[in-house]
């Protein structure tokens, strides 16, 4: 899935990738970046992951994966989300990842939209290949953000969450892979089941649901250890 590396990685930081398309070199790996302007209850600091061949592939637009953390990582210490969920295993993956942090209360869709508008043009990513994923509180928000802005995402991967069942028809054409442990003691699996069934009733035949027979809230470690999930994510593209 990785594009072929091109020569010239030691060129000047800003180069023209294609006509009217400015490429800006980035620091490789996981770094902390800062928004240019406030975005509600989203921390101005966020995590960015850039693949190793990003700077040497100036004409390639990368898939973008947005990761939403759970309630335990809420606050203003961005380091809290470095070792949980997708950020913990993102090294070597063939996409750009951004991971915002909710500072208080709960994820807010308007705030996340303000965040999204700032980052979508900042990096050399393909707007038709934006994947949204999250766990627990972030799993709920993955369903909800996807329901309110389905045109924005190529696919969603909600983990141990739930959404707004009446709005499920908004996801009738969305590729979805949901994960939830069958015996989750923290968030009942019925939350995911209700959403999966609702989008299927709406006519969505692109839904996968993985329900391990495990008594644990942590469905994300196994999900993000699944190489098949990342292969599936990289195949998703909006028409």
Q: Whole-Å distance between the termini?
A: 19 Å
Largest sheet: 8 strands, mixed
The helix content is 10-25%
Query: Helices and strands, in N-to-C order?
Result: EEEEEHEHEHEEHEHH
Helix and strand content put the structural class at alpha/beta
Say what oligomer this is: single chain
Give the neighbour order of strands across the main sheet.
3-4-6-5-7-8-9-10
Rough outline:
globular
Average predicted confidence as pLDDT: 93
Number of strands: 10
How much strand? 15-25%
Specify the number of helices.
6
In short:
The protein is of the alpha/beta class and about 240 residues long. It has helices at about 85-90, 110-120, 135-150, 190-200, 220-225, 225-235, and strands spanning about 15-20, 20-25, 30-35, 45-50, 60-70, 95-100, 125-135, 155-160, 175-180, 205-210. The strands form 2 sheets. The protein has an 8-stranded mixed β-sheet with strand order 3-4-6-5-7-8-9-10, with helices on both faces. Strands 1-2 form a two-stranded antiparallel sheet.
Ordered list of secondary-structure elements with their pairings:
Layout: E1 14-18, E2 21-24, E3 29-34, E4 45-50, E5 62-68, H1 86-89, E6 96-99, H2 109-119, E7 125-135, H3 137-148, E8 155-159, E9 176-179, H4 190-201, E10 207-210, H5 220-223, H6 227-235
Parallel strand pairs: 5-6, 5-7, 7-8, 8-9, 9-10
Antiparallel strand pairs: 1-2, 3-4, 4-6
Structure description:
With 239 residues, the protein is of the alpha/beta class. The protein has helices spanning 86-89, 109-119, 137-148, 190-201, 220-223, 227-235, and strands spanning 14-18, 21-24, 29-34, 45-50, 62-68, 96-99, 125-135, 155-159, 176-179, 207-210. It has six helices and ten strands. An eight-stranded mixed β-sheet has the order 3-4-6-5-7-8-9-10, sandwiched between helices. A two-stranded antiparallel sheet has the order 1-2. Helix 4 links the parallel strand 9 (176-179) and strand 10. It is globular. The chain starts with 13 loop residues before the first strand and ends with a helix. 40% of the residues are buried. Residues 1-19 have low confidence and may be disordered.
